[in-house]
Amino acid sequence: MIVDGHHHFWHLNEVHYPWLAAAGTPRFFGDPDPIRRDYGVPEFRADHAHVDVRASVHIQVGAADAFAETAWVARHAAAQGWPVGIVAAADLTAATLADDLARHAALADGRLRGVRQIVARHPSEDGPGAGALLRDPAFARGLETLAAAGLRFDLQLTGELLAEAAAVFGAVPALRVALCHAGSPWDASEGGMARWREGLHAFAALPGAVVKLSGLGMLRRDGAGVGAIADGLLAAFGTARMIWGSNCPVDALHRPWQALYAEARALVPAAGREAVFGGNAAAFYDLDTKTP
Questions:
Q1: pTM
Q2: Are 39 and 10 in contact (CB under 8 A)?
Q3: How buried is 127 (Cβ within 10 angstroms: 0-12 exposed, 13-18 middle, 19+ buried)?
Q4: Cis before residue 18, ω within 30 degrees of 0?
Q5: Which domains does the chain have, with CATH numbers?
Q6: Where on the phi/psi map is residue 62: left (φ > 0), alpha (ψ -120 to 50), or beta?
Q7: Measured between alpha carbons, how far is residue 176 from residues 153, 155, 254 in Å?
Q8: What angle separates helix 97-108 from helix 66-80, to the nearest 10 degrees?
Q9: pLDDT at 210 over 80
Q10: Which residues have a Cβ under 8 Å from the Cβ of 114 and sit 6 or more positions away?
Q11: Among 134, 160, 271, 277, which is most exposed with the fewest C-beta within 10 angstroms?
Q12: Backbone φ and ψ of 213, nearest 5°
């Protein structure tokens, strides 16, 4: 049984995604032009045809209207008969957060599993304000609201911010948090990787934290250095708290998806593969893994 713990669905006519509409504009993860097309359950199934995927998790993907995104993903998944958990976009600093979460839950029709609000992306896009949310008391209160609602938080940030984030999230021990894309160790220098590993261990000390083996295609586009990333994750979290995600369709900008999947499988010890590639995501996101 395989569960894809991190991917994206989108439909260019149903929902507006400003970054997908900006043709010819490179992003930190690469040039999105090849993926400026609808990507839904049929495309996802075609990409995963060679593996026994039973369920998946859609992660918010920069829609102009977060509620429209949640509503479309829920409708699309229902029409396709696909079991998907939805991690929606929400502003944790908003005074309307509790109402916003309730609205997402209603639109998701039983599929809402959590929220992602990106803390940092990449030094080329973040600028001097990187990590500002971590220093905002309203964000900390928002994390408490999420925990009280029984929802999870998907955390995307850069490796340099991991230690700071560990202190912020450590103040909300009831919150379950998934660290996206291995904690994004963009700085592949010896010093950068050392800081990332230190922050990773600090974050792994949080009782509700898991880490995603995802984003390797964009983090290391030629595949060099992915072993060091996997080794760092295994040392800090082990296989019991690691979730694999394809990051489809974004990661396939750099290497064929089947090659990325085989690479990820090879990075995980055989004894832990069932958990990393299925059981952990199903448990963390409370997913239905019956054959769709």
A1: 0.96
A2: yes
A3: exposed
A4: no
A5: 2-285 (3.20.20.140)
A6: left
A7: 6, 10, 31
A8: 20
A9: yes
A10: 85, 87, 88, 146, 151, 152, 153, 154, 176, 178, 285
A11: 271
A12: -85, 85
